[in-house]
Structure formats: structure tokens, C-alpha cells
Write a structure and sequence with these properties.
Layout (H helix, E strand, L loop, with lengths): L8 E2 L8 E11 L5 E11 L9 E4 L4 E7 L2 E2 L5 E4 L2 E4 L7 E9 L9 E5 L2 E5 L19 E10 L5 E4 L2 E7 L5 E12 L6 E4 L1 E9 L5 E9 L7 H18 L7 E7 L6 E2 L4 E5 L12 H16 L8 E2 L5 H19 L2 H20 L11 E2 L8 H34 L3 E2 L1 H12 L8 H4 L5 E9 L4 E9 L14 E8 L10 E3 L2 E3 L2 E4 L3 E7 L6 E4 L8 E3 L4 H10 L3 H20 L7 H13 L5 H7 L5 H8 L5 H18 L1 H10 L10 H20 L4 H11 L3 H13 L5 H12 L3 H13 L5 H8 L10 H14 L1 H4 L5 H14 L3 H8 L10 H15 L7 H11 L1
Parallel strand pairs: 2-12, 18-19, 19-21, 22-24, 25-33
Antiparallel strand pairs: 1-23, 2-3, 3-9, 4-8, 5-6, 5-9, 7-8, 10-11, 11-16, 12-15, 13-16, 14-15, 17-18, 20-21, 25-26, 26-31, 27-30, 27-32, 28-31, 29-30
Helix pairs in contact: 1-2, 2-3, 3-4, 3-5, 4-5, 5-6, 8-9, 8-10, 9-13, 11-15, 12-13, 13-15, 14-15, 15-16, 15-17, 16-17, 17-18, 17-19, 18-19, 19-21, 23-24, 23-25, 24-26, 25-26
This protein binds O-methyl-L-tyrosine and zinc ion (ZN).
O-methyl-L-tyrosine binds next to strand 20 and helix 2.
């Protein structure tokens, strides 16, 4: 074993840079294996910098070719250069120029950070610390500078040369087959927003005029042949730009906005100034290759990256601890955009499902951390559901507390005051406080205290006094580094639902700050008394999921079913159904027969058939909590086989009892013949597939044939993939044929084959690991392309709960093996996958022993572990 002693970075150690880089001029001489980068920096020391302070710039695997100060080569003893650092001793006390020439190898860059080649296209990824793999620099978000980039490359193989900002000159390089392009970005920015692209690409274009009349050229670049699949992305971009003008008063600020889709990309996409680079999964779509979920994902990610232009780029982060400042806020903005473009309640449910399935597990395990962490070893490990999704919930709570107008006032002040800054969460909060003349100091605890609070409610009704009393108690379990917790400020949207299903108005409320339908909790335990309540209500708490907490509503089954049928808040109708399913599934896992099951199943049928609800909502209403959700809810000594068996049995029972209902709904829904990805059509497809899910589960004669017929008749990817998934999940006749037919139809289309890989990986199977191993040999799979790995391995870890947590430890052993394999080439991908160990402590003893041994095997392996993987494994074992 070799040791890797990564430094712990602490928020309290933050200091400004001693020198300021005013401008950066970069020249890239692109060659696959030996690209030369000439960087000319204009620098000056800060007023408080003592003379003689060394200039220390970041590097990562760099080779220095030359260094000049004010045009003269530096003497050997005037600097020290290592692959990860450049130190210039005794720089001038006056402004000076430093010219640094480095050589890098894009073809050998398997980490996909810095400058690399994706399918013959040169592209960059610099967030968080990739720029230091290009040249020596202050690679930190508070070092803002004005960038000019000249790109030189072979013209035939790289006809397109793109950089940040606005295009300047282009031309041929005399006497060669090469050409160049110069780009200038007038907006000072940190290095993580730098980007360049060079390759043989084609684009679709559109002209956009901003609200104030400024013309902007929009281009989406893709590999040749894919241009017909970029239309939805362009449509999403234009709608995002309009929405940001209308909703936040934010306009675009350059002459061009370019997007490039590449196939090798670690994450979803990147908001580089004026030149967003995307994982092609979030750009390319047509009905043949993309599902409704893909279309929705594209709309969201295109909007997200575009919105970063203001929340992230114009106002960036002071250091990486402030990541949620740009990410939580931008996720909130993209969620609001989708809510406005689609159905708000359905979008809210989808976002909460995501939060509960990704962030709640993170917050309840060894990887729990605050939305604004205070220390890290590897920043790449902090692009988490907590920073992004819980971060968005915190912004949403600010809006809930202040109201829409107060929220907008705070945002306006934030944009006005901090444009051009590298800011902090404290700056952000202060804008809402000042714009609304309010104090958010207690609320701010949400940024610093990790863990998911539990909110326990109980209530009583006094008929004589006409009062309804609500007792609310909050507790937050200990999380790593935070054994004791303070009570949070929790905004609880609520209603008191009367016997006729309408909310009862109260005359007075005592015991907490209550304003209309919003109750704000500030203490560990609070008793709220509502007066003037004429009949016993059922409390509907946490409407719209007004705070990211785990609610124990204190309602009996009868009351939950009542809310499921009558609550005026659609979110809580859905939540009531989920709570009931979850409770019943846990009882079934324990071998019990749940009380009230039949009444629940009949309420489920009514919800599914309710024509007043939109199709997508009805589809969500029918959704069973996943095996992972149930495991999390059980929380300790989990036996994943028992959960899987209970869930299968419940689906089968619901399917058998409501077969006729599902068949009726299924046959009645007509989807227009020409495919459209709009929300209404997608909702119809999703409800049909959800009905088919239960019918397929029922085992009733004819259901397998119906599922196969759905697959055979499918004229779009949503239906084809949905039906295939059911054939495989329920192991129905036709599954094998379906898999073959899908493969034959889509071989050669990587993004479509990713779906095939993920279906196969998620299928319950006695020997899941062998199946996955075999699939890694399939031509559609590659260890080098993150999308392939996320589909196959991620599909196994994320959806095949029984396979991954198999009691013999084979799933854990396999994850250890592939973590070590992937870590050699791409630590970020390895680290993302190894996070699946985050739930190991919740498992039963038999599984825990195996998981721990696998984690220890990673740590003790005879290879140098990346900081990324090592940090996650150590935190898991802690
Ligand atoms: N800022 C991007 C996320 C992102 C982060 C790191 C990356 O490379 C390792 C790439 C993208 C976003 O929020 O969309
Ligand atoms: Zn983002």
C-alpha cells in the first residue's frame, strides 16, 4: 500500500491571494499528445502584500517549458517548478508580466479534467480544479480575471475553434495546414469557467433578441449527423432565456452563446462563460432514442447551465465551501422554471422524490455534511445532493418565509450588490434580511447544521372549547462531526382539513408564529392551539413539502386515507399515499399483514381514476416507494431480500386486485400519434406505463402478452424502454426477445444502448454480479466513457438493491474491485460509484461484515488511491 496524505482544507484558513491577476492571455497550440500552452499574466501585488512575498501558482501534472518575467527568461534560482506548483521568488513590487509555457497531453488525459480529447474533439473541464492541469495559475474561484484565448489547430480536423466570450479574429497560419481563432471575454471570471473546444463539429443556430433589444447568436454544436437531435435543447435554451428575463430580470450579456455536446464527460454539463460544455446525454434527443424523462432532463440541465450565467458566473463563489451559493440557488431557479413550464404540483413531487431518494440517504449516513461545509479533502466529492438539492430547498424556504415579493426584493439586491463579486452565503442571506428588514440568523442554521430533522406531530381536539391543539417536536440525529444539534427554524405550511374536505379557518392561533397557512417552528417542542375550530379536523402538515424534514404526522390509516382522497394540497395527497405504502411495505417486510390494506387499495384506485387530476400526477400517485427508500425508512438491520420480496408481493397484490381498473385506464388513454415531448403527452405515457407495471406484476393471464405488445407497438423510446423494463423486471415471457430486439434496433446509438445496459443491470437476478461482468464485455460498454459506466455499474448499484446488497457480499466485493480499477484512470467516476457504500451501516450484521471488509480492501489495496476515493472510503469507515 502506498500512502496518500491529502491535506484537509478548512474554511477558517481562507485568505486572499497576495497578487492579483488582472488579465490572462492564452495561446493554445493544439496537438493531441503535446499541446503547448503559453499563458501571459498581468499581475500586481495587493497593497498589503509584503515585498518579497513569493508568487505561488497551482499546477497538476504540468510540465514547464519556459518562464519569463517582463519578457526576460527567469534565472533558475528565481523560481521552483514542480508538476503541482510553480513558485516565483521575490516578484517585483510593481505590476509585472509573467509568461509561462507548459506542455500537456490531451490524448492521455483519462481523468477528463483540464484539456482532453473526447471522440477526437478537444474540450476542457475546469471546475473545480481543472485549469491547473492546463497551466500554472491561481486556480481558485476568487481570482477573477479578464481572459483572451487564441486557439491554433490543424484546420482540416478542427475546423471549429471555440472559446469563452465574443469571437475576435480568425485566420490561417501562414505556410501550415493550421488556423487560429481568438476569443475575448470582457467579464472577469475565475479559471474554473474557462473553456475551449476544437473539432470537426456542426451546429444548429438561432437568433435571439434580449428584452432590451440586444441580438445574440445561439449555437449548439454536435458531432456531425447529430444535428437533428439538438432541436429540443435549442427550444429549451430560448425558453430559459426568456424566463430569466421575465422572472428575475436577468438578460444575457455576450454577443454569442455557444453550447457543445461531447460524449466523454464526468458530470451533466458545465456553465463555462459563453461556452457551455455538455454531456451529450443532456443535449441529444429524438423520440427514437430519448425518453420523456430525457427530454425533461435536457430542459432542466440546459436551463440550469444558462441560469448559472448570473448565479455562478456574474456572481461567483469566494471559495469552494460556498458551492451551494451557486448550485443550490441555480437548482432552485431551474426547478422554478420547469414548474412554470410544466405542472407545478407534479414538478414538486418529482423534486421531492429526488431529494428523498438521493439527499436523505446522504444526510442519514456517514457521508452527511452541511449544505455549506467547513472542511474537505477533495472538492470534487462535494458536488452532492446535499449541496445541490438540499441547497435548493433552503432557497425555497427563504421564499416561503418571505413571500414571493420579499424573495424577489432580496434577489434584486443580491444581483445589484454582488454583480462581479466572489461571494459568500452570508452575503446572500444579508440581501434578504436588508431588503425585507428581517432577521434570518436562526434560519441560517440550515446551512451549517447537517442531518435531516425529524418532525413528530400529535394533536387533540376539544369539542367544548372548540380548540385544536397541535404538538410538534423536532429532533435531529447526530451526524459526523456534529454530535449535538440546535433546533431549526422550520416553516410548516399547513391546513386543518374539515370533514367535508375543505380547510377549516381558525380564529386565533397561539404558541408559535402562525400566519395564514404558514407556521414557523423555532423550538425543540412547541404546542400550537387553534381557536374557533367547529369540528375535528385532520391536520395536513408540511404542504408542498415546505421544509426538508422527515415528518411523522401522527395520523392513523383512516386519516391518511382521508387526506389522500381530499387534501386540497396535491402534494400532500400524494404524500399520504406514499406514507401509507411505505408503512405497509415495512409491515410486510416484517412478515405482518397491514391493517387497512384493502381500504388503501381502493383509495389508490380512486386516485388513479380521478379525471380531475392530471395524468402525470396519477402516475406518481401509483408509484411504490423503491426498495432503497424502504431500506432507508427501516434504517437499521436491513435485509434487502425481505424488502424486495415484500415489495414484489405488494405490487402483485395491487395489480391483481385492481387489474380491471388498470386495464380500463390503460385502454382509455389516447396519446396523439405524432410524438410530442410536452408535459401532457408525457403524463399520459407515464400513467399508461404505471398501469402496465401493475398489470405485468399481477401475473394474470394475458398481462405478459399485453406488455410485450406494448413493447412491439412502441413508436418512441419512452414506451419501448418502459415496456422492456417491465418484461425484464417481472421476468415475463418475451423479456429475452425484447432485449434482443432492442439491441438490434439501437446498436450503434450509444445513448440508447445505455438504456439497454441499465435495464439489464437493474434486473433482479440470482447472480447479478456475473451478469454485470458479462455485460462489461459487450461492445456497447466502455470503462472510459462515464455515461456507459453510470448506466451499467450505476444502474446495478442504484436500482438492483437485492443484487448489490446480496448477503454473500458479492455486490460489495465487485464494487471494491471496480472502484480500484476505475480509480487508476478516472478518480471522479470511481469516487461517485464508491459512495454507494454510504448505506452500509444500515444493513444487517451479515451484510455489514462483508461491506466493511470490502471497504477495508479498497483502503489497503496495493495501489495509490486518489484523494477522491480515499476520502469517501475513510468517511464511510469512520
Ligand atoms: N457546475 C456544474 C457541475 C459540474 C461540476 C464539476 C464538473 O467536472 C468535474 C462538471 C460539472 C453544474 O452545476 O452544472
Ligand atoms: Zn450547477
Amino acid at each position: 500500500m502506498q500512502s496518500n496524505t491529502a491535506q484537509l482544507i478548512k474554511l477558517t484558513d481562507y485568505e486572499e491571494t497576495p497578487y492579483v491577476i488582472e488579465t490572462v492571455s492564452l495561446v493554445f497550440k493544439l496537438h493531441a499528445e503535446a499541446t503547448e500552452v503559453v499563458s501571459t499574466l498581468s499581475l500586481h501585488p495587493r497593497a498589503r502584500t509584503p515585498a518579497g512575498t513569493a508568487l505561488e501558482l497551482d499546477g497538476d501534472e504540468l510540465k514547464l517549458l519556459s518562464i519569463k518575467l517582463n519578457g526576460t527568461p527567469l534565472e533558475d534560482d528565481a523560481y521552483d517548478a514542480a508538476p503541482d506548483k510553480l513558485v516565483v521568488h521575490n516578484p517585483p513590487t510593481e505590476p509585472f508580466k509573467l509568461e509561462i509555457t507548459t506542455q500537456i497531453n490531451p490524448a492521455a488525459n483519462t481523468r477528463l479534467m483540464g484539456l482532453y480529447l473526447s471522440d477526437g474533439i478537444y474540450c476542457t473541464q475546469c471546475e473545480a480544479e481543472g485549469f491547473r492541469r492546463i497551466t500554472y495559475y491561481y486556480d481558485r474561484p476568487d481570482a477573477l480575471s479578464v481572459f483572451t484565448t487564441r486557439i491554433e489547430a490543424d484546420k482540416a480536423s478542427n475546423p471549429i475553434l471555440l472559446g469563452n466570450g465574443n469571437p475576435q479574429e480568425t485566420g490561417r497560419i501562414d505556410g501550415t495546414d493550421r488556423h487560429f481563432a481568438v476569443w475575448h471575454d470582457p467579464h472577469p471570471k475565475p479559471a474554473y469557467l474557462f473553456a475551449l473546444v476544437a473539432g470537426d463539429l456542426t451546429c444548429i443556430s438561432e437568433k435571439y433578441t434580449t428584452a432590451s433589444g440586444k441580438p445574440v447568436d445561439l449555437n449548439i454544436y454536435v458531432e456531425k449527423g447529430n444535428e437533428q437531435r439538438a432541436g429540443w435543447s435549442m427550444d429549451s435554451l430560448v425558453r430559459s432565456m426568456r424566463w430569466d428575463e421575465k422572472t428575475f430580470g436577468r438578460e444575457y450579456d455576450l454577443d454569442v452563446f455557444n453550447i457543445v455536446a461531447v460524449s466523454a464527460f464526468n458530470m451533466g454539463a458545465m456553465e463555462n462563460k459563453g461556452l457551455n460544455i455538455f454531456n451529450d446525454k443532456y443535449i441529444l434527443a429524438n423520440s427514437e432514442t430519448a425518453t420523456d424523462l430525457d427530454y425533461e432532463g435536457i430542459e432542466t440541465v440546459v436551463a440550469h447551465e444558462y441560469f448559472h450565467n448570473w448565479t455562478g458566473n456574474r456572481i461567483t463563489c469566494r471559495e469552494w465551501f460556498q458551492l451551494c451559493l451557486k448550485e443550490g440557488l441555480t437548482v432552485f431557479r431551474d426547478q422554478e422554471f420547469s414548474s412554470d413550464e410544466r405542472s407545478r404540483p407534479v414538478k414538486r413531487i418529482a423534486d421531492v422524490v429526488r431529494l428523498k431518494s438521493r439527499q436523505f440517504p446522504e444526510d442519514q449516513g456517514p457521508l452527511s455534511h452541511p449544505v455549506r461545509p467547513t472542511e474537505y479533502k477533495e472538492i470534487n466529492n462535494f458536488y452532492t445532493a446535499t449541496v445541490y438539492d438540499k441547497g435548493a430547498e433552503l432557497v425555497r424556504m427563504i421564499k416561503t418565509i418571505l413571500g414571493a415579493d420579499g424573495f424577489r426584493k432580496g434577489m434584486d439586491l443580491y444581483f445589484e450588490r454582488h454583480d462581479g463579486d466572489a461571494s459568500t452565503i452570508e452575503d446572500f442571506i444579508k440581501c434578504f434580511e436588508e431588503a425585507n428588514d428581517t432577521d434570518l440568523s436562526h434560519f441560517s442554521l440550515w446551512y451549517h447544521q447537517s442531518g435531516t430533522p425529524h418532525l413528530k406531530a400529535s394533536s387533540s381536539y376539544d369539542e367544548a372549547a372548540k380548540t385544536f391543539t397541535l404538538e410538534l417536536e423536532q429532533t435531529t440525529p447526530a451526524t459526523p462531526g456534529q454530535p449535538e444539534k440546535e433546533p431549526f427554524f422550520i416553516p410548516v405550511r399547513f391546513g386543518l382539513v374539515g370533514p367535508n374536505g375543505e380547510d377549516i379557518a381558525y380564529s386565533k392561533a397561539e404558541g408559535a408564529r402562525v400566519d395564514g397557512d404558514l407556521l414557523c417552528l423555532t423550538e425543540r417542542k412547541q404546542t400550537v392551539v387553534f381557536h374557533g375550530i367547529g369540528s375535528k379536523p385532520v391536520p395536513s402538515l408540511l404542504r408542498e413539502f415546505s421544509a426538508p424534514v422527515k415528518l411523522e404526522a401522527g395520523l392513523n390509516r383512516h386519516e391518511q386515507i382521508f387526506l389522500m382522497r381530499h387534501d386540497i394540497d396535491p402534494f400532500n395527497r400524494w404524500q399520504a399515499a406514499q406514507t401509507l405504502m411505505s408503512e405497509m411495505l415495512i409491515e410486510m417486510t416484517n412478515g405482518d399483514i397491514p391493517a387497512g390494506k384493502d381500504a388503501f387499495i381502493s383509495a389508490l384506485a380512486n386516485m388513479a381514476e380521478d379525471e380531475n387530476l392530471d395524468h402525470a400526477f396519477r402516475g406518481f400517485g401509483l408509484m411504490l416507494p423503491s426498495e432503497k427508500d424502504i431500506a432507508l425508512e427501516i434504517g437499521k438491520d436491513v435485509d434487502t431480500d425481505a424488502i424486495g420480496a415484500a415489495r414484489d408481493a405488494f405490487a402483485k397484490e395491487i395489480g391483481a386486485s385492481l387489474y380491471d381498473t388498470f386495464e380500463r385506464i390503460y385502454s382509455a388513454i389516447e396519446v396523439s400519434e405524432t410524438f410530442s415531448p410536452d408535459a401532457a403527452s408525457a403524463g399520459k405515457r407515464s400513467l399508461k406505463l404505471r398501469c402496465l407495471y401493475y398489470m405485468a406484476a399481477s401475473g394474470i393471464e394475458g398481462s405478459a402478452a399485453l406488455t410485450k405488445a406494448h413493447f412491439d407497438a412502441a413508436d418512441n423510446m419512452t414506451d419501448r424502454m418502459g415496456a422492456l423494463n417491465l418484461l425484464v423486471t417481472w421476468n415475463l415471457e418475451g423479456a429475452k426477445d425484447g432485449l434482443q430486439a432492442f439491441e438490434k434496433r439501437h446498436q450503434g446509438t450509444a445513448l440508447a444502448m445505455d438504456k439497454w445496459l441499465s435495464i439489464a443491470a437493474g434486473a433482479p437476478n440470482e447472480d447479478a454480479v456475473s451478469t454485470i461482468r458479462t455485460l462489461t464485455e459487450h461492445p456497447a460498454f466502455s470503462w472510459d466513457i462515464p455515461n456507459r459506466v453510470y448506466s451499467l455499474i450505476g444502474g446495478f448499484l442504484g436500482s438492483n438493491t437485492r443484487g448489490f446488497h446480496k448477503a454473500d457480499g458479492s455486490g460489495y466485493d465487485y464494487l471494491a474491485e471496480i472502484t480500484l480499477h476505475l480509480d487508476k484512470n478516472n478518480p471522479q467516476v470511481a469516487s461517485r460509484l464508491v459512495k454507494s457504500f454510504g448505506s452500509w451501516k444500515n444493513m444487517n450484521a451479515e451484510r455489514r461484515v462483508k461491506a466493511k471488509a470490502a471497504l477495508e480492501r479498497i483502503l489497503n489495496a496495493d495501489q495509490q488511491l486518489s484523494t477522491d476515493v480515499k476520502e469517501i472510503v475513510e468517511r464511510c469507515l469512520d
